Automatic annotation (TrEMBL):
Protein name according to UniProt: Signal recognition particle receptor FtsY
Subcellular localization: Cell membrane; Cytoplasm
Family per record: Belongs to the GTP-binding SRP family. FtsY subfamily.
Membrane topology: Peripheral membrane protein
Main function: Involved in targeting and insertion of nascent membrane proteins into the cytoplasmic membrane. Acts as a receptor for the complex formed by the signal recognition particle (SRP) and the ribosome-nascent chain (RNC).
Positions contributing to GTP binding: 55-62, 137-141, 199-202
EC class (word): hydrolase
Oligomer status and interactors: Part of the signal recognition particle protein translocation system, which is composed of SRP and FtsY.
HAMAP family according to UniProt: FtsY
Keyword entries, A-Z: Cell membrane, Cytoplasm, GTP-binding, Hydrolase, Membrane, Nucleotide-binding, Receptor
């Protein structure tokens, strides 16, 4: 807001429409429109791209994994899904449903199996099948559970024995406000988050948390969930976001 006040003071603007346009420009600049927001999901060095999807329960993490697989498959890529959320049988079943729906393959273990082992197997099979990308859905760990967060770090380390982890996408519920920022801090310390996925932007909340998250973590919001439909996952566009924010 200080930047906006300074601009108004130096420009002599008094018209409300001009102030609104100036506010829009300041907000878009704050969202770092020049940042790279594409999801790195192309194979390299003879190995598939590996994407870890992390976040707490209830944010839409597993659904986001399935929707991202749908986007990649529609783009002609071969995708393998890893159901590493072994503590919640429904998560593996949900991911298997997505795999069947989009024409992909899912690797899963028994309920309660070591998540790192399942993630390792998923990447191994991805390499053997010459997949373009392996998307690993991790457990929806509570960010206050230190042991479980350590386990998430273990998943990443084990996967990296076979292939580089290209993306760690943190899924945040846009309606959680300050709590979402706390989650972002902790996950970033454990697994070096490379991008944010904001879900539930179809509700009344406008997702203003994006400004704080990007500023504090120094990583971009890459994708947004705009609804419950299978195609309601879209690239994040700062200009469009600010226009919706000001409507």
């Amino acid at each position: 807001m200080e930047k906006l006040r300074a601009r108004i003071a130096t420009s002599g603007v008094r018209d409300a429409d001009q102030v609104r346009r100036m506010l829009s420009e300041v907000l878009v600049e704050a969202l770092q429109p020049g940042w790279e927001r594409s999801v790195r999901a192309l194979p390299h060095s003879g190995r598939p791209a590996v994407v870890l999807v992390v976040g707490v329960n209830g944010t839409g993490k597993t659904t986001t994994t399935g929707k991202l697989a749908r986007v990649l498959v529609a783009d002609g890529r071969q995708v393998l899904l890893g159901a590493a959320d072994t503590f919640r049988a429904a998560a593996a079943d949900q991911l298997a449903t997505w795999a069947e729906r989009v024409g992909s393959v899912v690797v899963r273990g028994r309920e309660g199996a070591d998540p790192a082992s399942v993630a390792y197997d998923a990447v191994r099979q991805g390499i053997e099948r010459e997949a373009d990308a392996v998307l690993v859905d991790t457990a929806g760990r509570l960010h206050t559970k230190t042991g479980l967060m350590d386990e998430l770090g273990k998943v990443k380390r084990v996967v990296e024995k076979q292939a580089e982890v290209d993306e760690v996408l943190l899924v945040l519920d846009a309606t959680t406000g300050q709590n979402g920022l706390v989650q972002a801090r902790v996950f970033s310390e454990v697994v070096d988050v490379t991008g944010i996925v904001l879900t539930k932007l179809d509700g009344t909340a406008k997702g203003g948390i994006v400004f704080q998250v990007q500023r504090e973590l120094g990583v971009p919001v890459k994708l947004v969930g705009l609804g419950e439909g299978p195609d309601d996952l879209a690239p994040f566009e700062p200009g469009a976001f600010v226009r919706a924010l000001l409507d």
